[in-house]
Design a protein that fits this description.
8 helices; globular; mainly alpha
Length: 175
């Protein structure tokens, strides 16, 4: 029972404190990988499964819940992804006038920057070699990360270009 309660707390906290999509990743990694519920490899697999399907970017959490506790974990994660937006939307509609103020714009900017930093740190921890798995990341994988970041930051090219290049290079050089 303790595992179920841990999952409820971890997924709801991540969903409530994130801005959607991958912004919950650092919290989930901290709560699930460091405690041994899932491995970094399973985390990457859950992200991949979530990105393969259509829909919101946060659906990787359902796969992550499944990896952690089977169907019960997937159901907990699905509720954690679904319930907070259903509560926040009516509240935001009610508070709309206050939310359009300068203080809220500053708050959102600050949250966005903090979340971006956490996501970048988590990505770095996932792709760089670790002590338990030295040499796990090849030079070409790091080059693809840099190229994807460059394409994304430039903003002139469609993101599908980065996905296509990454897929082609992965097929050619991957195992």
């Amino acid at each position: 029972m303790d595992g179920l309660l841990d999952m409820v707390v971890a997924f709801f906290r991540a969903s409530m404190l994130s801005l959607g999509g991958m912004s919950a990743l650092p919290l989930l990694r901290q709560d699930l990988v460091s405690t041994g519920y899932v491995t970094d490899h399973q985390l990457v697999e859950a992200i991949t499964i979530g990105r393969l399907g259509t829909g919101p970017g946060g659906l990787y959490m359902v796969s992550l819940g499944y990896f952690a506790l089977g169907w019960a974990g997937a159901l907990i994660a699905l509720c954690a992804v679904t319930i907070p937006p259903l509560v926040i939307l009516p509240a935001a509609t009610f508070l709309r006038r206050q939310l359009l103020g300068a203080w809220m714009a500053g708050l959102v900017r600050g949250l966005t920057m903090a979340t971006s930093g956490l996501v970048l740190t988590t990505v770095a921890l996932l792709i760089l070699p670790s002590g338990s798995n030295p040499g796990a990341t090849a030079w070409w994988q790091l080059a693809l990360v840099a190229l994807g970041a460059l394409i994304g930051l430039e903003g002139k090219r469609h993101p599908v270009l980065a996905i296509g290049i990454g897929s082609a290079v992965g097929l050619l050089l991957g195992r």
